[in-house]
UniProtKB/TrEMBL annotation:
Protein name: Uncharacterized protein
Length: 200
């Protein structure tokens, strides 16, 4: 089974058939898809300017989509390396029990579904790398009451999500399943009760 980098090489290779290049980009999403496979594909297509069902997209547009995906993957891999180093130090210092961020991180190792979007057509419009930077920043500071990606105040608790965890606070504005560790207990309770959050 090919890894992300070898699939990326196929996307860039002008000697490869266009269908293979498109297929290889789709296969990259099996290795790294921050919004989930379908939502990440929809995001990349819209940002690069070709349709999700387009079987013959402009090769330059395929590469543009790949570049955005690679940049986001670099951001996430750097975060994971820092996370692993921190946990190693904590274990060395005797802190064996992981915290809530660690529990969340365990479910997203490798970057799949980091900012899960259950509806593949509703996702942030910003570049993937920027979305991940905002999410990582939120994970590294005190919990807040709004979506860490778009500052949206409308969070609603959704059930039967096609993801683990299968329930949680979803931002109405950008569509992401907001990681629970970035929200205050009050914000989580309000989302569960169906209240829309308002800034203080």
């Amino acid at each position: 089974m090919a890894g992300f980098r070898s699939l990326a090489r196929q996307v860039r290779d002008p000697r490869c058939d266009l269908a293979l290049r498109r297929y290889s980009l789709r296969k990259c999403l099996e290795r790294f898809a921050p919004y989930g496979h379908r939502a990440t594909w929809d995001h990349l297509c819209s940002r690069a300017g070709f349709g999700p069902e387009d079987r013959s997209p402009d090769p330059a547009r395929l590469v543009a989509a790949l570049v955005e995906l690679e940049e986001a993957r670099s951001v996430w891999l750097a975060y994971e390396a820092g996370f692993a180093e921190r946990r190693k130090k904590e274990k060395h210092d005797g802190l064996r029990r992981p915290g809530s961020v660690d529990d969340w991180h365990r479910l997203t190792w490798g970057g799949f579904g980091v900012a899960w979007c259950d509806d593949p057509r509703v996702h942030p419009g910003e570049p993937l790398a920027e979305v991940l930077r905002r999410l990582i920043s939120a994970l590294e500071r005190e919990p807040g009451a709004v979506c860490p990606v778009c500052d949206g105040e409308r969070l609603v608790w959704k059930y039967e999500l096609d993801h683990e965890p299968s329930t949680g606070p979803v931002c109405v504005d950008c569509g992401i399943l907001v990681p629970r560790p970035v929200l205050t207990p009050e914000a989580l309770a309000d989302a569960r009760r169906g209240r829309q959050l308002v800034s203080a």
